[in-house]
């Protein structure tokens, strides 16, 4: 099939590339001309495992192309995926102005039947607005369908998630749209859930909100563990082995960040409110997540007493491992608070240093590795559980630190081992 992907961000780039890999002819459109020039030169605007190789391969094979000319993109294909950003507004609602703009441009340039698919995460009933917009601005009698096909890929394993999904959700209003999407996804072996469009839109927000709820739940339980001396890691294992609960998303720690969970939770709470339901459960989920960061700052104070002039080393800046993404990363928020209170902060992350430099500028010292960060530090905080941070030379860390304290924000270290070596250890919900 010939496909157009509008928006070459995380979701658009992965979706377009993977569809090309499945044998389709894909045109990725973005109005960021610098990004398009970069992609045409074979450079990647983001780090995502396996993506660069796939982009290159499909570009060479002529199945994947990039352009900033949206008009050609629309005319050339039957199926158009909207993958533009839907950021949070100040009131928590999703800013849908990019979706509106794209819908309008599609309407103005379509010259044959189009299936317009929402891939961006949008609040329920957005499709109604897309349909209204296209009907208002279309210049001829061309038919079209709108469908919702939410994306569940995780950063760091996006290509793998696209190719081997747990399920594919398609929300459609016509048989034709259903058949086109089923054909498109036919090379992928998984269950396809077909719903109406509102259902698919709700599935996306509800899935992310549920996962965020699991994380906040375990973080809430970790408070009790801390007060009683129980260990949250073994408590989570005991809970998660129940197959009705399952072990995933039960890792206590600094809380969730990233470009999806915080934004989607806010948007789901907001749209529920607008529709007349106050989703108080999710408001609490947000609160617990925010309190995790307060807990970390308080723990640092418990280890170091006053912060002015204290040197704090932060290991890991990305909101999770295997990505360079620092959007809503707990580490960034915590660093800002430490700096504000007078601490000197030294940082290291295997992939996110460039992005951090743009965000934190001169406020922190950028280090070449974890040992450099730990040098002369009064406390090390582990914020992102990169694999390479798991097996380290603790004797070397001990030698270079000024005061050997470790705050394990993701509970990946063995408290006993560290204490025996001479560190003060503090975790999240464990002795
Ligand atoms: C998420 C969803 O998983 C994905 O389906 C959706 O399409 C986009 O949002 P992503 O934001 O890439 O994906 O990251 P994910 O792996 O889900 O982690 C989100 C956050 O939760 C991270 O900050 C992570 O550190 C945190 N987390 C995750 C925990 O704190 N504990 C856990 O047990 C799991």
Summed up:
This protein has 431 residues and is an alpha/beta fold. Helices cover 45% and strands 14% of the residues.
Give your account of this protein's structure:
- The protein has three domains: 2-195, Rossmann fold (3-Layer(aba) Sandwich), CATH 3.40.50.720; 217-284, N-(1-d-carboxylethyl)-l-norvaline Dehydrogenase, domain 2; 291-426, 3-Layer(aba) Sandwich (Rossmann fold), CATH 3.40.50.720.
- The protein starts with a strand and ends in a 5-residue tail after the last strand.
- Helices cover 45% and strands 14% of the residues.
- The protein is elongated, with a radius of gyration of 23 Å.
- The strands form three sheets. It has a six-stranded parallel sheet with strand order 3-2-1-4-5-6, sandwiched between helices.
- Helix 5 (97-109) links the parallel strand 4 and strand 5.
- By secondary structure, it is an alpha/beta fold.
- Uridine-5'-diphosphate-xylopyranose binds at residues 151-155, 208, 211, 215, 249-251, 253, 255-258, 260-261, 319-320.
- Uridine-5'-diphosphate-xylopyranose binds next to helix 9.
